[in-house]
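User: Sequence recovery, please. Input:
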């Protein structure tokens, strides 16, 4: 799916909520490797949940977190300031007017 991205490229919007985009400054090779690690970890989360393996589940969730931090989707922001609206409803952020304008274009 193609979700709308904020004009500054920091977030995409899904279900009216902002989600941080991956760091665009990562090389394609590194980004591809990190996405593969993330997807492997997510599959392990699913497997561990089904098997009810608490230790494996915790380890897999940590791997997901580590990959998302490396991609720039969590942790320190990849832009110049520390403001972060990740997971905020777009209407409660400085992007509210942009979102309303975008909705009226449809």
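Assistant: Recovered sequence (106 residues):
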């Amino acid at each position: 799916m193609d979700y709308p991205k904020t004009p500054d490229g920091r977030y995409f919007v899904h279900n009216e909520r902002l989600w941080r985009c991956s760091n665009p400054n990562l090389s394609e090779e590194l980004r591809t490797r990190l996405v593969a690690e993330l997807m492997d970890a997510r599959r392990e989360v699913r497997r561990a949940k089904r098997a009810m393996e608490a230790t494996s589940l915790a380890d897999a969730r940590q791997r997901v977190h580590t990959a998302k931090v490396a991609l720039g989707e969590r942790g320190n922001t990849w832009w110049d300031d520390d403001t972060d609206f990740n997971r905020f409803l777009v209407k409660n952020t400085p992007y509210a007017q942009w979102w309303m304008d975008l909705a009226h274009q449809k």
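The CA atoms of residues 7 and 68 lie 22 Å apart.
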